[in-house]
């Protein structure tokens, strides 16, 4: 794969952004001409648009880089509940590609197109990806509680009114884990008598407790996702490694927790969240110390399962790539023959732009470039 890195990344960039552009147009069409008359139909069709877009990077990870997730999961719960009900996802926010591993497993469960998240409001203005999320009705927050509590209440009702099961991701830590943020998080916990976590930041409970009253009755369960990579892995888990065709090995333990297990009182629910993250911390610690999520965590062991890549993701990528490459080559060749140098170099410029956008996105996904929000909040 290394010899094809430059060409492969260009093909991925062109396919990803071209697909996203046409998905944006189709989403806009649905919002203008379908949603006012039939919201259910609009949201059903929206699933296939977002699925087609997300599939591009799932295909890159699985078919191009050869990565696959080792999932530890209760077989009975998977058969009875997974992707058959609405769910709130709680996931550790530690790695550059934690979101991509979540896409990979939700693709196997059959609800990738209906996977949504709480996200920073500024992200909805990011061309293509941000617009896809905006029109797919993600929950965008200002990080201003007085404004956000209203948005959360209203938008949760929208998200969980979808005809098919929706999984909504909440990164309760608020920002991606870094050593600097963890140091401040430990200091914050010690000063306030909160449990000190080794592998997580102290969870911010406000968003969780604010969501609970609305969630009850429309979202029956929490899906706790614990993601880890071996520390001695030869390939770093990053978007760059996937675009370079390098294989990574994610390990994931997923468990279902009925929402009824969470206390209704706000303070008790906040305390429950703190205790829950203590258990999550033990799970990750057990993995890093013993190679197993279960040996020292006190959590019941469940079997490991590896899912084969779905042919649909490969066919989706091939379809978009074929259309993109065919159109580009046709226009370049006809422009060259006709002496249309403006058109010819315009295509070259667009290709360079797509490649540059991909490089920028990869750079922005690096842990070193993550938001300083957690550090600032802890410092305050």
TrEMBL record:
Q: Could you tell me one molecular function GO term of this UniProt entry?
A: 1-acylglycerol-3-phosphate O-acyltransferase activity
Q: Where are the transmembrane segments?
A: 12-33, 45-65, 122-141, 314-333, 339-358
The record ties this protein, via InterPro entries, to: Acyltransf_C (IPR032098), Plipid/glycerol_acylTrfase (IPR002123)
Residues in domain Phospholipid/glycerol acyltransferase?
Answer: 87-209
Key words, A-Z: Acyltransferase, Membrane, Transferase, Transmembrane, Transmembrane helix
GO CC terms, sorted: endomembrane system
Read off the SMART domains from this record: PlsC (SM00563)
Family, per the entry?
Belongs to the 1-acyl-sn-glycerol-3-phosphate acyltransferase family.
Q: What is this protein called?
A: 1-acyl-sn-glycerol-3-phosphate acyltransferase gamma
């Amino acid at each position: 794969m290394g010899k094809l890195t430059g060409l492969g990344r260009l093909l991925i960039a062109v396919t990803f952004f071209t697909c996203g552009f046409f998905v944006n147009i189709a989403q806009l069409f649905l919002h203008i001409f379908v949603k006012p008359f039939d919201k259910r139909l609009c949201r059903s069709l929206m699933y296939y648009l977002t699925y087609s877009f997300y599939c591009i990077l799932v295909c890159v990870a699985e078919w191009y880089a050869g990565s696959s997730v080792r999932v530890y999961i209760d077989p009975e719960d998977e058969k009875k509940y997974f992707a058959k009900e609405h769910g709130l996802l709680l996931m550790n926010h530690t790695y550059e590609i934690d979101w991509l591993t979540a896409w990979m497993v939700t693709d196997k469960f059959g609800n990738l197109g209906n996977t949504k998240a709480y996200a920073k409001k500024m992200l909805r203005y990011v061309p293509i990806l941000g617009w896809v999320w905006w029109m797919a009705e993600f929950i965008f927050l200002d990080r201003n509680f007085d404004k956000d509590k209203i948005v959360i209440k209203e938008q949760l009702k929208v998200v969980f009114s979808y005809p098919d099961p929706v999984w909504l991701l909440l990164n309760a830590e608020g920002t991606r884990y870094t050593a600097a943020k963890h140091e401040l998080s430990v200091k914050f916990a010690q000063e306030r008598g909160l449990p000190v976590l080794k592998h997580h930041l102290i969870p911010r409970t406000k968003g969780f407790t604010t969501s609970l009253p609305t969630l009850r009755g429309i979202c029956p369960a929490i899906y706790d996702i614990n993601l880890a990579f071996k520390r001695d892995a030869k390939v770093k888990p990053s978007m760059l490694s996937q675009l370079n065709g390098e294989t990574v090995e994610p390990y994931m333990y997923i468990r279902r927790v009925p929402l009824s297990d969470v206390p209704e009182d706000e303070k008790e629910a906040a305390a429950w969240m703190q205790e829950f993250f203590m258990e999550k911390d033990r799970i990750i610690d057990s993995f890093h110390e013993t190679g197993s999520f279960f040996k020292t965590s006190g959590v019941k062991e469940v079997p490991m399962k590896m899912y084969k890549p779905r042919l649909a993701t490969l066919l989706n990528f091939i379809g978009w790539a074929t259309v993109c490459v065919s159109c580009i080559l046709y226009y370049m060749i006809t422009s060259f023959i006709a002496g249309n140098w403006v058109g010819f170099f315009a295509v070259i410029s667009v290709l360079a732009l797509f490649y540059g956008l991909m490089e920028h996105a990869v750079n922005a996904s690096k842990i070193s470039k993550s938001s300083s929000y957690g550090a600032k909040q802890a410092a305050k």
